[in-house]
Structures are given as C-alpha cells and as structure tokens.
Design goal:
The chain has six helices and ten strands. It has helices at 9-18, 25-36, 52-60, 83-95, 112-120, 137-140, and strands at residues 3-8, 21-23, 40-47, 64-69, 71-72, 78-79, 101-105, 124-129, 146-148, 157-159. It has a six-stranded parallel β-sheet, with helices on both faces. The protein has a two-stranded antiparallel sheet with strand order 2-10. The termini are far apart.
Length: 162
Amino acid sequence: MNTHIYIDGANLHKGSIELGFNIDYKKFRGWLSQKYKSNKIYLFLGLIPKYARLYEHLQECGYILIFKETTTNAKGETKGNCDAELVLKVISDYYEKSFDSCVIVSGDGDFSCVVDFLSKRNAIHSTIVPNNKKCSILLKRIQSPILPLNDHYHKFSKIIPK
C-alpha cells in the first residue's frame, strides 16, 4: 500500500508546544515512516527567511517541504496559513492516484471537508491530532479514525523544561 502523509506544520508545532514537548523531527519522521510505511511525508509551512537552517534540517530529515508565502499584519504578526495548499495537494494527489491511502496531521477543523471526502472513498488511513484537547469537533464528527499524539510524544520528543 502506498501511503502519503500531509502535515500541517503550524498545527503540529503549536500542539506539541502546548503539551510541553519539543519535537525531534528526524525521530518523528522515523516514527511516521515505520508506523505508516510511508516514504512521502509532506510538511506545509509558512516561509520565513530567518528559519532557512531549520528548513534545510527538515529536508535532510527527509520531509518534502511545501511553503506558503507569509504576510505581516498591522500588529507585526507573521501569517502563513497553509491550509489551502495542503488541501489542494491532497486532492490533486488523490485524483492523480499518487497514493492508495493518506494520513493528515492536524486537529484543525478546516480539514474536515477533505477528511470527509477521502473517508467516503476509503482513501484516508487516519487523522493524527497533535493535541487531542484542541481537536476540532468537525473532525470528530467524521467516521474516520483519529489518532491523538498526546500519548506518543515521548517516542520522538523532549520535554520542554519549565
């Protein structure tokens, strides 16, 4: 079975930090690869030039990075929401028959439409939720497996010292 994994980078990062974990992305990729037998793992991120070294590291770890150009709002906050890019990539890969099954890593309800679409076509293995307490009710309503990462962080993360 050919399984692709699509990761909402901001949602994963925020969820892990909220739970007090700093992800080792190399170990995380290994865990995902072993668990889902996947060789294509996409990581969607807002492109911020000062993080160029991080992006290089992530590519060395084997992630396929897909970037969204960022903007800065009036408060000086950087915005680079990649939801549309992730949905477009998943659906285009589905129609191009690039995978038999996929995994989406996000607890964001914005992905409920794509999870529901794929679920009805038996094309989604599961949705991995970075923080079960922040998982959208929209995802929970769909008849598709959800795997909370809460009990798995110890396998590929370090606890953030308080």
